[in-house]
Amino acid sequence: MLVALAVADMATSLHKLMRHRRRVQWDWVAPLAALVILVELFGLWWNWRRFDGNTIAEIAPYFVLLVLMFLAASITLPDEVPEDGIDLGAYFDETRGYFWTVYATYVSIWIGMWTVEAIGKGAHFLDLWRDFYFDYPWIIAAFTLVFVRARWVSGLLLLVTLLWLLFQFDWWSRPLGSAG
Hey, which bits of 8-75 come out as E strands? Predict the structure, then answer.
């Protein structure tokens, strides 16, 4: 349900931006952040479909992930377009720290859960690095972007993230009933 609410929030914000497009000074980073979070929401929903946890310890991390994704989705685009207009670049600059803190925390918990599971199955450092070579440095970079003001740097990491999500996970050729 939180995934649906997050998507609805993003769609409503996009609708308001498009409806009042003449009062919007467009920038590429905020819509890119929204697209990345939308893809993440799809991935979370995809993985949740086969979730079979039945204890609080198994369910609680997923609940926290859902809340973080809702927050990330809610911050990517502005809720309203004021009468005097809105600059999406300035909006992203204003919300950058909040966005990166929430999104990096989400990824940290997600990758942390997979890391703990892998260690529980006997994985060693090299096994973890082989599986998460992109994710561990990404987490450090994302938390660093809380403090980096140059919007293009955020945009670059978001673009790399989008490409990683779309192509690394091979969603396009995976049948709906498959795992992984």
Answer: 24-25
Question: Which residue is associated with the tokens 């997050």?
Answer: 6
Using the CB atoms, write b or e for 95-127: b if 16+ within 10 Å: bbeebbbbbbbbbbebbeeebeeeeeeebeeee
Neighbours of 160 (CB within 10 A): 14
Q: pLDDT per residue over 106-164, tens digit each?
A: 999 999 989 998 999 999 999 999 999 999 999 999 999 999 999 999 999 999 999 99
Write phi, then psi, for 86 (nearest 5 degrees).
-145, 145
Cα-based angle 79, 81, 82 (whole degrees, multiple of 5): 120
Does residue 77 come out as left (phi exceeding 0), alpha (psi in the -120 to 50 range) or beta? beta
